[in-house]
Specification:
By secondary structure, the chain is mainly alpha-helical. It contains five helices and no strands. It has one domain.
């Protein structure tokens, strides 16, 4: 199975949204700097910027996997290439599968563990402890959403690799 085009569009759209969120954070930070210059700082700007960046990071993580943006350990692959004197596709594929399987386990654990803070925050109606209270489950849900997106992306990458795809070697 080749990496699905529909999922690429979903992940690309979320990456665009993530980029817009980072841009919004930059705008808020600039506004805050100007407001402080005029001695009228806001009480909400830093908090909102932090919350937006949390969501932006988790929404953009699956895109980083999709586009090879995460740090990868090439050392083992490169050593194998030097020993054999050529690019060993089978070894590269095995190393990639092992690496992505480890990322799947990490994402699954993050997804599993991330649901507890969300349900707890919803049960307790917890809000952020600052001047602009926001339901805490909204922030915690970023972990669940992001890890689910990463997990699905990684499964598609693994299926692509196991079906002789070359993109993720």
């Amino acid at each position: 199975m080749k990496y699905p085009a529909f999922w690429k569009k979903v992940v690309d759209s979320l990456a665009f949204l993530s980029g817009c969120m980072v841009m919004l954070t930059a705008i808020l930070s600039t506004y805050e700097a100007i407001a402080r210059f005029f001695k009228t700082p806001t009480s909400w700007s830093l908090n909102f910027s932090t919350y937006i960046l949390i969501w932006a990071m988790f929404l953009g993580a699956s895109y980083a996997f999709q586009e090879h943006g995460h740090v990868a350990v090439d050392m083992l692959r490169d050593v194998a290439d030097k020993i054999s004197g050529r690019k060993n596709r089978l070894l590269r594929r095995c190393m990639a599968v092992i690496g992505y399987l480890m990322a799947v386990v990490f994402s699954a654990v993050l997804l599993y563990g991330g649901r507890f803070p969300v349900s707890r925050a919803m049960r307790l109606n917890a809000v952020t402890p600052n001047t602009t209270p926001i339901p805490l489950w909204i922030l915690d849900a970023a972990i669940v959403a992001g890890s689910l997106l990463m997990l699905v992306t990684l499964v598609f990458i693994l299926l692509d690799l196991l079906n002789k795809g070359e993109k993720y070697l």
